[in-house]
Amino acid sequence: MDAWEALTTRASAVKLGEPAPENHALEKILSAAVRALDNGRLRPWRFLIVRGEARKILGDVLAEALKTREPGSTERRLEAERLKPLRAPMLIVVVATLRDNPKIPDIEQIVAVGAAAQNLLVATHALGFGGFWRTGESAYDPHVKQALGLRARDHIVGFLYLGTITQPGVARAPELDEVVSAWPS
Ligand SMILES: Cc1cc2nc3c(=O)[nH]c(=O)nc-3n(C[C@H](O)[C@H](O)[C@H](O)COP(=O)(O)O)c2cc1C
């Protein structure tokens, strides 16, 4: 797939199955991610690969965090949270490891990590695999961050789910005139 096609046809997959991109494909995907623009070359991104049984450990962490946030959660809701990481054979937790820098504010570092996540998902698509990006309350939960070994100052920018597309999504884009205008108008 050429770059133009990859950029304009990527869509979040609805359902993913085995196999995940592994070995050379995964290396290519991660190489594309770390080519993202990054002011000051701070390399503020980290990628935690969660696959196989580790997804169950992550599911337990998510359920435990939900129980702490909302002690009244039903067992059904906790089980749904526990099962989330099993929606794909691989998750990549994309983390922003922020540094104090007089010239590069946090927002620029977080944006760079977002760009890396986008590159990662476009590269996944270009190689014929699928992905989707999730956040939700668990991405901002201190218990989850701690379990993943992050500092309080770090951010989970996304849980990226990767695998083989079993149900594709539809590529949609807004009309350009809704989002583009000449300035001053
Ligand atoms: C920062 C960020 C967080 C997201 N979190 C969620 C989420 O928690 N749940 C969800 O369904 N989609 C989430 N998405 C995915 C978007 O909803 C999805 O990309 C959007 O619907 C556009 O669809 P497309 O990827 O097929 O173009 C997130 C996307 C971004 C960039």
Structure description:
The protein has seven helices and five strands. The chain has helices spanning 3-9, 23-33, 54-69, 75-83, 106-126, 142-147, 176-179; strands spanning 15-17, 45-51, 90-96, 130-134, 155-167. Strands 1, 2, 3, 4 and 5 form a five-stranded antiparallel sheet that branches. It is globular and about 55 Å long. The structure holds flavin mononucleotide. Flavin mononucleotide binds next to strand 4.
Jot down its keywords.
alpha+beta, binds flavin mononucleotide
Architecture blueprint of SSEs:
Layout: H1 3-9, E1 15-17, H2 23-33, E2 45-51, H3 54-69, H4 75-83, E3 90-96, H5 106-126, E4 130-134, H6 142-147, E5 155-167, H7 176-179
Antiparallel strand pairs: 1-5, 2-3, 3-5, 4-5
Helix pairs in contact: 1-5, 2-5, 3-4
The protein binds flavin mononucleotide.
Flavin mononucleotide binds next to strand 4.
How would you summarize this macromolecular structure in one to three sentences?
With 185 residues, this protein is α+β, with helices and mostly antiparallel strands.
What binds here, in terms of ligands, is: flavin mononucleotide
Q: Helical proportion?
A: 40-55%
- How do the SSEs run, as a string of H and E? HEHEHHEHEHEH
Number of strands: 5
Shape: globular
